[in-house]
Design goal:
- This is Glutamate/phenylalanine/leucine/valine/L-tryptophan dehydrogenase C-terminal domain-containing protein.
- Keywords: Membrane, Oxidoreductase, Transmembrane, Transmembrane helix.
- By secondary structure, this protein is mainly α.
- The protein folds into three domains: 56 residues, 3-Layer(aba) Sandwich (Rossmann fold); 81 residues, no CATH class; 61 residues, no CATH class.
- The chain is built from eight helices and three strands; from the N terminus they run ββαβααααααα.
- It has a three-stranded parallel sheet with strand order 1-2-3.
- α1 links the parallel β2 and β3.
- It is globular, with a radius of gyration of 24 Å.
- The model has no long low-confidence stretch (mean pLDDT 78).
């Protein structure tokens, strides 16, 4: 069984390209990636489409919120665990976890009877960039962050992913964010800047008396 997933953009499959679809199953991760007419054509051809309302849980879904909460708890637990062992570099565990996830995905594909799809040269290049550079670099930095910052600070800085992700999708994929996305991004950046300034002020206030006592002792 050949399947594909549609993410990021709307109206990816329309009347113009629906005839080129060879997949037997389609997973709608993005919101509205298939037009209504193309969806009807796929249904006539017997193509199974898991709609976005189920695949991405839809806005306000309890299932989607539950997954998001579990992911947040897992990341917070990871940061806290790393912070309790500041002298231990847990980065090598990322390799093991990646291998376990890859093995689980491979076994799931075999169990479902999915056919092996060989990527094109361009797709292989993007996969190499994603799997050999972007994901390892990002998760390694995340894993090492708690060695130098508190778990709470690392979690707050991860909010920048929402802002930068929105900008990357806008610049590279041409998907224009909603105005509220810019408002939310401004709130995230403003909150982090305000926290940084307040922390810096508290550090200066705390170091002031310490410097004064040191100067008095030297006299």
């Amino acid at each position: 069984m050949c399947w594909c997933s549609l993410a990021a953009l709307e109206n990816q499959i329309d009347d113009a390209n629906v005839g080129q679809v060879r997949a037997k199953s389609i997973l709608e991760i993005a919101n509205g990636p298939i037009t209504a007419n193309a969806d009807a054509t796929l249904e006539e051809r017997g193509v199974t489409v898991l709609p976005d309302v189920l695949a991405n849980a839809g806005p306000g879904s309890w299932l989607g919120n539950a997954f998001a909460v579990m992911a947040a708890l897992a990341m917070a637990s990871n940061f806290t665990l790393c912070r309790t062992r500041p002298g231990v570099d847990m980065t090598p565990m990322l390799v093991l976890s990646g291998l376990l996830v890859a093995a689980a995905a491979w076994l799931a594909g075999l169990a479902a009877g999915d056919a092996v799809v060989v990527p094109t040269a361009a797709q292989a290049g993007y996969l190499a960039l994603l799997c050999l550079v972007l994901l390892p670099l990002g998760f390694t930095l995340i894993q090492r962050g708690p060695l130098y910052l508190t778990a709470a600070d690392v979690s707050l800085l991860m909010l920048l992913e929402t802002v930068t992700g929105t900008l990357w999708v806008w610049w590279l994929l041409g998907e224009t964010p909603a105005p509220l996305a810019f408002v939310g991004g401004a709130l995230v950046v403003g909150t982090l800047m305000t926290k940084g300034l307040l922390d810096r002020r508290r550090e200066r206030a705390a170091s002031g008396p310490a410097r004064g006592e040191a100067a008095g002792d030297s006299c």
